[in-house]
Fold each of these.
Amino acid sequence: MAVLTRRSFLASGAASVLALSRWQQAAAVESPSDMTLGFSTYGMKSLKTEVAIEAIARIGYDAVELTVWPDWDCAPDNVNATRRREIRQLLDEKSLQLTSLMEHLYPTEDDAEHAAGLERLEKVYQLARDLAGDKPPIVQTVLGGGNWDAKKSMFRDRVGDWAELGQKHGIVTCIKPHRGGGMSRPSEAIWLIQQLGNSPWLRMVYDYSHYAFRDIDLVESVRAALPFTAHVAVKDAVQQNGKVRFELPGTAGTVDFVTLLKELNAGGYRGDISCEVSGMVSGKPGYQPIPAARTCYRNLAAAFKSAGVSRAR
């Protein structure tokens, strides 16, 4: 891949002007004037998508992220045209914004695997359009494991292809730094975005639970990441015996969500604050998704109130 060619495609000429124009319009006109509080169906694998949407709306959330991994209910191959229309209608009836589709696709050196990944993403981008029309959600994914220095060039090349495909569909692709992953810091996601010409079609997901108990300050990282951030995920992180485990947001008290919300609001962020239930929690015996969603809502709604930050309702 020629990096300069990709930069010129994504960051200059008519294509880039159009992309920037659309991004600015979305930020200034189509997006709500306030942040939304959402819940991710990553914590509701046992439920049908329609049941999850009903529950999330009933609890009081403003938005939803749908998990679209191949073995999940809302994977593109599991949602035919009729069901797509019904889910879209249900979202409208419940006044629930679809803010994100969660993928789990890793970049790879293997060309055949990369091509298969692009085909998989194509289906996800189409699903985003079918479920939300001209206001599609972002599509997010982590980038898998490995050593950053060894993998960053490959990440750049493969993610660049993803961003081009997303641009074709008018979908913003978001990459998420993940604790222990090949890309684990906000600064690394920013590097990838800048290497690809700071395309408005490639942004990042900010999730402080992956930076806690490291040399990454919450306020400093929010301010550095915010110009490149299109989605925010929240959950708690607890450190014990040198290991970190994730908990429901607001239950451990280790992440200052009030300060996080204040910083995001002051910096002009008007996207979703999406409650994410880690597999460390949902995989425990006896886990119940709807009570977990209620707990997340109670804790984050209180954080919004304490921060003095209004929500789009």
Amino acid sequence: MTLTAILISILAGVVLAYLPGAVIFRLPIADRDKRAALAAEERVFWQIVISIVWSLGAVMIMAAAGVYRYERLLALNVGVSVVLLLIARGSLLWRGTQAKVTIAVLVPLTLFGLGVWRFFPAAEYIIGGKDPGVYVNDGFAIARTGELFRRDAVVPAVPAADRDLFFRSHQSNMYYGLRFMGVYINDPNTGSVISQFPHVYPASIAIGYSLGGAVGAINIVSLWAVLGVLAVYFFGSRLIGRLPATFAAGVMVLNVIEVWYGRYPNTEVAMQALLFAGLLALARGHQDGDRFFGWVAGALLVLLMFLRLDAALAIVLLAVAFALRFLVQNERPRLSTAVLIVAGAWLAVRYYRGPLTWYSWQYREHLPEVAVVEGLIAAAIVVVIGLGRFRRHFAKWLTPSLPIVCGFAVVALAIYALFLREPGGKLTDWDAYSLRTYRDAYVMWPALIAGIAGYAMTARREFWRDPAFFLITAAYAIFFFQKLHIVHEHWWMARRFLPIILPATMLFASAAVFGSSTPEHRRTVRRAVAAILFMGFIGWQYFVAARTVAGHVEYKGAIAQVDKLAAHFTNRDLIIFESRNAADYHVLALPLAYEHGLQTLVLESPVPDRSQLEHFLADALTKYERVFFVGGGGTDLLSRRITATPVAFTPLDVPEFETTDWKMLPKEIRKKDLGYSIYQLNLGSRTTAGFSLDVGYFDDLNVVRFFARQIMDGRSYRWTGRLSFVSITGLTGQEREIELVLHDGGRPKTASPATLDVFFGETPLGRISVGSGFQSYRLAIPAEAIRAAAQSDDPVQLRLSASTWVPRDFLGGSDTRELGVMVDRITVH
């Protein structure tokens, strides 16, 4: 980007993330003097938060109507700000009523700096295949099309008779089939598609994309992470004091969970920011009596509803907190908060039961119907109001006893989970030991013990100041430590701890070691020093544990590589990607479609029906200027009429952290091989020029069920699996033998011998005992088998059945592939 472009982006960022909030926050309405009395740094925080809520809400509303444009959002923010400025007529100035700037402003500035250091640059996760890629590319699509609910023109362009080639019907009443992984087709006749996940986070990515292209889009997650750290700090400052909150937030920045997900596209880090900001707004609006924050709290909670469905648990617990304060202290929730939550919930129910019905099905399977839930809520409200008439009979004992009961329950359940809980029946080992995994892998013994003790200690003193926080912390901990509800892999399962459990652990641990400090009971210097040393020790351990993660950028270089791939095509071309069942190259189709606006399809099978594919190609070549195939894992689609001309082979590998199960933390950074070949597909007659295949080089349309290509000493090759296939074309009928250049791959002596059984179609050719080093092995082919293969319209299939070994079992490490033998070249003579 040029300097001018950077300056324009910075100015636009101010308009989007500061201007409207600054104006709204300063309006002379709803107890402005109380807002003015807040610390200067918190006032700035709220102006940013309100601007973000406003901008994201505007994007969601406009995109839902299909009219979002970045320029319109900028114009809306500027226009609304100008109108409010004119209405206020100079009343936005504090005129000396505000709290002055103090040295305390250095704390959030330091935390901001720590966050920038730990969270930037973000992972270049623009490829598809998993949740992060779906979020990012959905953001690309919102920015490019201006729509949440889109019609994909490529889908209805596929003839109905050929749909199964690319999107097989899943026979579901919730959607038709898959467009890409995480993107569902609702109606193949119209091309109506919907991404799997709620849209608030992709809406923020759309803004980032407009501000700074793909780099701006991916780094939105890091901005959310910084905002989350600041939200935890400001909330903690009110609850446990500025000094303990400072160390809690500072240590949290260093934790490996926060570092990994501060760079890795996810909604949990956004939930952390919005939830803690919402809890603080609730406290300011309800416990501290500032009417303005009733509206802010309601808006934040509504945004949460469209971020993650499990945020509904937090909403329910907030309602319980409201009910408790009403029963004990006769405090009614602010009408502003209640109105926004009810309106937001009404919209959210229709959102999740309508466009996002697939995303919410598993939750609906375990919950009663909406009408039943509404009835239960109405009944609960009546019961709470009725009980409120008798509060004098139970408020005196409920007020001191409920915090003690909550603290005791959390401590007791933690002791059970840490020392007594064992797997059995339907209880898996990773669920049974989930709290122990959290302790050993992420927070360590001292911090966890301090956190559990701090919950009980702080609840006894401060429960009624923020009952929602104590209830939400306990409920989320019980819910996820009881069952993780996610694939049990590091770091994947660590996302469960990010929104509330990790920040709460740090806040309560810091509260426990620092203790309370009140005008009546000041904290001693000795205790403060001891607490600082304790939290410093924890922070240092986290820093060391996260050192490798902090220095790693997942998929670094992927943005430039996808741009390079896209440069091969125009929007008049059709690009067909190999099947998800062949290898991972399909992950490149999603960014080409949603970022670059190219026409892409993904095959359902690595062995598509040839007659169906011929029919589709005949139709496609009349609609598109050219048709290409991109792959690297192996697809059997050639026939006597389907021809493929090699266009380009591009080696491509990107760094990827290893994946491990819950028993072992990942340690290694590997290379993900996405080197691809491009072919132009046409219909015509294939020449019979014999068959010779250099395996690993432009072999993608001939091999199936091989492992990814590799290069050793300038020689390309692939490993076979237990059963691999080669599609043999171009035979003349005069061939008499097949030659294979093979290598046992340095198989350990303790493994079974390397053998390869070779079948030409259904004709067995023999067994080869494969030795060390690349050597040539020849097998005779019966004349009748070769004549039949030459006369067939379809290629003959060479079937290779190998004895296999698993490197991890013999050499250690984490390579769990079942390897057969190395294949370098196959020639039919």
